[in-house]
Amino acid sequence: MKKAIKILSLMLIVSFVFGTVFVGCGSTNKEPVKADASTKDAAAKKEPVTLKFTYWGSPIEKKAVEDCVKKFQEKNSYITVDGMYIPSADYLTKITAMIAGNDAPDLGYMDVSLAFKMAEEGKLCNINDFLAKDSELKKEDYLDNIWYNWAPGKSLGTNSACESITLLYNADMIKAAGVETPPTKAENAWDWDKFVEIARKLTIDSNGKNALDPAFDYKNIKQYGVQFPTTWQYYMPLVYSNGGDYVNDDGSKLTLSSKEATDAIQNLADLVNKYHVAPSPVQQRSMPAPSVGLQSKQVAMILAGQWNLLDLGAAKLNFGVGVLPKLKKSVTLVLGSPTVIFSGGRHPEEAWLLYKWLQNPESSIDLQAGGLWMPLMKDWYTKPELISKWAENNPSHPEGYKDAIMKQTIEKGVSGPAYYVKGFSEIDAIIAPALEQVWLGNKTAEQAIKEVEPKVQEKLKGRYDNKKQN
Amino acid sequence: MTIKNKTNKEQISSQVEKPGCIFPDVLSNFTKFGKKGKLNNICSYGGHMKQETNNRVPMFEDIPENASNIRLGHLANTKKKNAYRQEAILGVLFAMPAILGFIIFTLGPMLASLILSFTDYAVFNKLKFVGFENYINLFNGDNPFFYKSILVTFYYVALSVPLGLTFHFFLAVLMNRKIKFRGIYRAVFYLPTILPIAATCTVWMWLFNPDFGLLNYLLGFLGIPKLMWIGSEAGVVPSIVLTAVWIAGNTMVTFLAGLQDIPRQMLEAVDVDGGNAFHKLRHITIPMVSSTIFFNFIMGIINGFQVIVQPMMMTAGGPNNSSLFYGMFLYKEAFEFSRMGSACAIAWVLFIIIMIFTGLTFKSSPMWVYYEGEVKGK
């Protein structure tokens, strides 16, 4: 009897303890251990250190990152890296749960919006502090347009890799249609009318007529001239090209509603609804990925991220790269997502070592040469001996790559709104659905954006200006 | 089938009527050994096991009754009480895994989320109590998605529950008839329930394709112009309802079970009275399965309010948020905007909405749900 009560009370206590542990999660935080030991000292001591590193990516990227981490461990034998691969669809959920459970990684890939919020709460390290102490690297060694700065002098890090938006095409289809190949130099970039004309020539219906033909049947299109996803990554380059921006200089006003911006967006929508040379988002949903569409000749040109080179190179497709068509000036959009070091980790110095290692193009050269990533360091865009290591003589980097993408990215690359608009993911959550009506042809870009402008205006909180800060 | 059921039922009811312990002989043999307290346990649990095999639902109150029978009245009242308490404790202990599971994995998180719903919590920040602010922000329209998602979800529930019930009931009636290859048909209609929902979504997306999807192709034969299905604001919710109604298995099976419980003589009585199939359906079948309809109706409402996978997979909430279901809204708030406090408030609002609807259904049930053996007015 007493025994039974004892057991019962024990169980109750256990359950309460569990309960409080669950409820209490997240409210306490480990104190960061002071990092005073220099890199060399740490290495000399050889105290075993374990770092937890989380990342996402395709199977190829996973393999490459694993190899990269393995090499790092060989070089720094006292550090063990616990690399955790999390599929990108689950990443936010998983990482949130890890943080809530006081089990945050030491460093990892991160969603831009979440990263900014965490940095403002002091949960991420300022990478500038590490750089200031570092003897090997200076901030000037990096590209300028890949930094995520949440306040002047405070940076949560760089892109995991550099990416930009470009024009990719199936060279055989261009040849078959007898049209000019897209230019690779910024100064020769097609203007919009020229681009539309080429796209119309490349769009073919089931009777073999192209979109310039009066008898063209746009309801039965066999081959589209161009395909583009309808998210901000693809309309913002045109907005910048037309002299527009997402918000004004101090981030107090939405300028996506300005004429420069809405015209640019309308131009893209017209490709779908007016000229019928591009599939609508609804049609795209049941079409293969754009890079696959190029291979299966469903589409001749795509506005796409340069990371698609990996798939195209692997598919041994006869493809080419070109600069994006321009409205007023030729630009491209630089994008990516940051790798961050979490504050509160026990080994910030070792985390920085791994951070540097991951950033070094040399250690992930397969991904650079394969076409998935572009280097983060300036030297790799300017010094011929370094360029030859990744951007030449491989199937993923066709002729013209160096002009159309590499040079374009460092010379004409504009960091996208995710780098500087505060609360961007919430603002985009309002803008993106509104623009869906534009892609479907139910409203003009101006109407759609003007309609949600008051709602967006309420959500604007300024900008993390990454241009004034350095 | 029906006859077998009936005899089974009779057995059960006769079992229920027997008072006290079922196997007094066996139990009295046990009493010869050892301490009484221990034996009581053995006896009563043994009795339980037997009872369960006889389909009798074991009841907690049975225990002292059994116990008193076994002891043949030797024991004083206090001892009786002790024994009762002891058994109660042991009973609770044996149920502990389930109780602990509920406390740790359901009640605990629920309470935690209730508390969090009054805070400004983003997982990585310090908890700050904000009172009812999260709730106020939802209802005063500060959150641009709240009313939209409520509207979308209500529309979906209002459409999918009646449609689903009717269609699944109709299917069950068909499957209950003595037709050839009935087993195969049943399996075929159950199949969508076993398939992973992500896979069925992908297939439906192909069917819905406005240009070369099968549905538009078929409509073309009838001279109906192409529909946009999930691509248009007006069409997206009905299209998703279609995919949900197609997954018929579970509801159909419960309906089938209900249909098979209808005593044959009742249907025969209608025949004798000269009634037709409609009369059977209207006056016998539907009233007799009303409790199953009631169950499926409530489950339909609960599941309908929580739908998330189809819109996530097929539309991502679009176009123009016209398929932004409540579940998706909650997910976005929690993980995309990392506003956990607000997300908890959203979850509680949903809980209350579901509770109200379930409550209303229960309240209305005496008017339309008929239980066999129930006497009106009791």
UniProtKB/TrEMBL annotation, chain A:
SUPFAM superfamilies, per the entry: Periplasmic binding protein-like II (SSF53850)
**Organism annotation:** Ruminiclostridium cellobioparum subsp. termitidis CT1112
Q: Does the keyword Transferase apply?
A: no
Give a Pfam family name: SBP_bac_1
List the protein's name.
ABC-type sugar transport system, periplasmic component
Gene3D superfamilies with a match to the protein in the record: Periplasmic binding protein-like II
Q: Does Transport count among this protein's keywords? A: yes
Q: Which UniProt keywords apply?
A: Sugar transport, Transport
Q: Which domain of life is it from?
A: Bacteria
UniProtKB/TrEMBL annotation, chain B:
Record's Pfam families? Answer: BPD_transp_1
The cellular location(s) given in this protein's UniProt record come to:
Cell membrane
Per the UniProt record, which residue ranges are transmembrane? 88-116, 154-175, 187-207, 227-257, 288-309, 340-362
Output the superkingdom of the source species.
Bacteria
Q: What is its main location?
A: membrane
Keywords from the named record: Cell membrane, Membrane, Transmembrane, Transmembrane helix, Transport
Keyword Transmembrane helix part of the UniProt annotation? yes
Q: Which GO terms describe its cellular component?
A: plasma membrane
Protein topology in the membrane:
Multi-pass membrane protein
CDD domains of this UniProt entry? TM_PBP2 (cd06261)
Domain ABC transmembrane type-1, first and last residues per copy: 146-361
Alphabetical list of InterPro entries matching this protein: ABC_transporter_permease (IPR051393), MetI-like (IPR000515), MetI-like_sf (IPR035906)
GO annotations under biological process?
Answer: transmembrane transport
Name the Gene3D superfamilies on file.
Answer: MetI-like (1.10.3720.10)
State the similarity comment.
Belongs to the binding-protein-dependent transport system permease family.
Q: What is this protein called?
A: ABC transporter permease protein
